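Task 17 of the worksheet. Students: predict the tertiary structure of the chain below and write it out as structure tokens. Keep your answer in the requested format; marks are given for formatting as well as content.
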Amino acid sequence: MKLWDKGTDINKKIEEFTVGRDRELDLLLARYDVLGSLAHIAMLESIGLLSKDEHTALKTELREIYKKIEEGHFSIEAGIEDVHSQVEYLLTKNLGDSGKKIHSARSRNDQVLLDIKLFTRAKILVVANSVSYLFHTLIELSEKHKDFLMPGYTHLQIAMPSSFGLWFGAYAESLSDDLQLLLTAFKVTNQNPLGSAAGYGSSFPIDRQMTTDLLGFESMNYNVIYAQMGRGKVERLVAFALGSIAATLAKLAYDVCLFNSQNFGFIGLPDEFTTGSSIMPHKKNPDVFELIRAKSNKLQSLTNEVTFITNNLPSGYFRDYQIIKESFLESFDTLIDCIDMTNFVLQKITVKDKLLLDEKYKAIFSVEEVNREVQKGVPFRDAYKLVAEKMKNGIFNPDFEINHSHEGSIGNLCNQEISDKFETIFGQFNKSLIDEAEKALLKG
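Model answer:
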């Protein structure tokens, strides 16, 4: 069954090529297709395109389909092109002509747009929750280890004193900015495209505000052409936000791999979190963070993939958009898995104390000595040369005391301020409105 079927057989090879992975990927969209249809039929009844009895029967049947989807008993049958066709086929099979009316005043174009937006909106909320758990783990680790000093590096050369409190806190604040990007992507996503039909609206007197409210959208894509132009744009913006989180994870994973190595020895991973070698008995490899790094780096390429597929298309719908689904829909679970695994392992990480007492880190206190001379009244450039001369002559014996008190420094991490910033952003995702809307559509 095809929604566009006009009684002409299509070449089998052409059909296989054009359908691609749609049947497989559309299973991810199935629950959202039903939610969209529930809102759509309520609107159709309100404008007289469905009778009350037809609406009631369709609503009951759609809720049964939704239940089967949630229980894992829904499939797209052989010969049926996509999830939209499967749902309409089941409705028509069970209800007859009423099932054939469900597609009035919409197109597969705005139907798939809606499904993808509902799917994306839901997945963004899961990502945001996972980010929140990791953020709080990092803040806790920062507070726990705020007095554990470690070397800070520039050019991979020892540079200045740092701390594990500062290091863990840096990644927490990075996630705060990542969350801000994700919130922007969420707000762009959270606009209703339903009613744009094939991209040029409908001659039916549809009520787009009604479906917007029923589906818990913050707003709608008002211009029907722009609603269709949003296909690809939404995915690109969301991919960029996901890539930003992935970049934070990749950098953290690199640090962990580096600091866990014997030449650094700053941190340790439990033996059960590492893998071994087939010929080297001593090996304890941080494979989990290497894979997090690789998967996170791959996720960052998604923005370019979406851009290259869509950036030379004019306005209107094109089948090119189908290809985006193959990478985009599955990217969320990959990122969520990486975030959750990072959070899981970090909670068992061990941190080495008193690192800077090692003689090889002696030079790291040179800036502290320069600053002390400046506080005595010595001009900075003269103080710099004085300390450099002591180091050159082997008579540099620094004071190991660290006194950093400004905002965001070793002695003043500002973790509370970072947490406040994060929570302000997190609170704007407005999940409760969406949950209430979906419950209302599904209640008996």
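Marker's comment: Residues 12-100 form a domain with the Fumarase C; Chain B, domain 1 fold (CATH 1.10.275.10). The radius of gyration is 28 Å.
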